[in-house]
């Protein structure tokens, strides 16, 4: 089920925008965010990504859950770069057996990496909150992404929720059998058994699904029927063109600022 369920499709301009335009523009923006070397451009792109949520209703708790883990990873990347990259000493943190030296180059580069990660993740979140996954995958198919990659991504998205339900059911069964009252070592072992059982069931299910697909004539080189039956509206084309020009401007400014 897509995250676009949190609001009615006609409730915001971003949701009304053609899915093909949204997918191409936002994924292109993710690519641009990953190559920026100027912190102010990365910050501007991140703020622009955040502003997309202001034009559509969304579940703030779901957005927080989506961003909190990447933010933690981005923070760890920032710290690792701060204390390992550069030569000009910024400050020193004395510890018991050794000291940590922070460098000026590491501070600048770490900020850029942090902003790049958060901008890319926020753009992907905006795309997932506003566009059904099937539309994203079919747009990638139109962009000549290999059919095998699209099919695998589609099945992964469809059945990850089944794995989640299976894990929840097995966990509840473990709790109902007083699995929480045993020792810590026993709980660790039981958790490993649950994880192994989930993987085995997932492997068996994926094998049965693939065999069923082959029985129905599946061929990775076959051509599917066109998913999109209407043309992209002219207004949406103009919006996509304007957004593309802005991304080109950002890349140009980034190159000229080096």
Automatic annotation (TrEMBL):
Entries under InterPro entries matching the protein: ABC/ECF_trnsptr_transmembrane, ECF_CbiQ, ECF_transporter_component
Any Gene Ontology biological process: cobalt ion transport
Membrane topology field: Multi-pass membrane protein
Chief place of localization: membrane
UniProt keyword Transmembrane, yes or no: yes
Keyword Disulfide bond: no
Swiss-Prot/TrEMBL keywords: Cell membrane, Membrane, Transmembrane, Transmembrane helix
Cellular component terms (Gene Ontology): ATP-binding cassette (ABC) transporter complex
Domain of life: Bacteria
Transmembrane segments: 24-55, 67-86, 106-129, 238-256
Subcellular location: Cell membrane
Annotated family: Belongs to the CbiQ family.
Name this polypeptide is given: Cobalt/nickel transport system permease protein
Organism whose genome encodes this protein: Sodalis ligni
